[in-house]
Amino acid sequence: MTGANTAGGPQAADAFRELSGFLLRLTILAPEGGVRFASGPRGTQDVVLGGWGGPDDPLPLRDGRYLRLIVRLSIAPPSEGSRLKVATSSYQYQMDREGERWVFRYDYLRTPPSPYPAAHLQINGSLAEDSLPPRMPLPRIHFPTARVSLEAVIRLLADQFGTPCATTPEVWRPVLAETERTFVEIARRPLAGPDH
C-alpha cells in the first residue's frame, strides 16, 4: 500500500484510504466505524477522507469517544508528476459526536491563512497561569508543530488517553512504526509560520 501512496496517480488516493482504514481498524476504531471518500470542491481532482457519513462525520472509537478525521487530498496534474498531495488534514479528538466537547485538534494546511502556522495544535482547556492576551482563550491559540501523522494521533490516543485497541501493542506498534517511517520520508515540512 505504501508504494502506491508514493507512486502517485489516481490509485494513490485509494491506497491512502485503504491504509488509513487499516491502521484505524487495527487500533482505536470501533467495529461499526470506517472511512470513505467524498468529492472535493467542484472542478478539482480533490477527494476528502472522513467518516461513513462524509468528511464531518466523526469516527467512533473503542472508548465511546470520537475522532473527527478530515484529510483533503489532491492529485497533481500530469505536468507535475500526478503525485498525491495532502492539501489539508485535521484530527480532532472529541468527547461527543457533535464536537462541542473537543479535547485537542491537530491541523495541517498546505496554504494557511496568515498568521497561523501551517501545522498547529489547539487545546480546548484553560491555563493554570494567566498568560494569554485579553479575550484570547486557550482554544484559539495555534501552537506550531511539525506535521502530525495519523500514526502519531493513534499512538497518542492509545497510550496517553487510554483508548482500547483492537489488537495488542505487539501487533499494532510495529505496523504504525513502519507506516509512519514512510510518512516522514515523503511528508512536506511546512515552515512554523507564514512564509511572507
Notable traits:
alpha+beta, 4 helices
Q: How many E-type strands?
A: 8
Helical fraction equals 25-40%
Head-to-tail CA distance between termini: 37 Å
Mean pLDDT: 89
Oligomer: single chain
Structural class designation = alpha+beta
Query: C-alpha Rg, in Å?
Result: 17 Å
Query: What would you call the shape?
Result: globular
Please give the domain count: 1
Order of SSEs: HHEEEEEEEEHH
Percentage beta strand: 15-25%
Question: How many helices?
Answer: 4
Question: Are there runs of 5+ residues with pLDDT below 50, and where?
Answer: 1-5
**Sheet having the most strands:** 8 strands, antiparallel
What's the SSE blueprint?
Blueprint lengths: L1 H6 L2 H17 L8 E5 L7 E5 L7 E2 L5 E10 L8 E11 L7 E8 L9 E5 L19 E2 L5 H10 L9 H18 L10
Structural account:
By secondary structure, the protein is an alpha+beta fold. It has one domain. About 25% of the residues lie in helices and about 25% in strands. The chain has 4 helices and 8 strands. It has helices spanning about 1-5, 10-25, 150-160, 170-185, and strands at about 35-40, 45-50, 60, 65-75, 85-95, 100-110, 120-125, 145. Strands 1, 2, 3, 4, 5, 6, 7 and 8 form an 8-stranded antiparallel β-sheet that branches. Strand 4 (about 65-75) and strand 5 form a beta hairpin. Helix 3 packs antiparallel against helix 4. The longest helix has 18 residues, at about 170-185. About 30% of the residues are buried.
Task: Give a quick precis of the structure.
The protein is of the alpha+beta class.
